[in-house]
Amino acid sequence: MSKPITTRLDEDVVQAIDNAVACGVAPNRGAIISRAVREWLSHHSEEAIKDSYRKRYEAIDPDDEELIAKLGTLSAMISIDGNR
Known about the structure:
Layout: H1 11-22, H2 29-44, H3 46-57, H4 62-82
């Protein structure tokens, strides 16, 4: 069962929605907004966010490994220089 909600949109957004309805993209404003919200939720649901993090942090980026090595070298140089 669907539940009606009230929202305010900028005039240009409403005009774009009305143009889409006029072109036959959807039967009415509500259908376009419902589709947009469902699509947004599919990309921003808790599970989608978890998947995004898993994909991003599963493997170390080769550039990250190089950066870690450079930071290690710099740290060693600073330590050696500080002991002089």
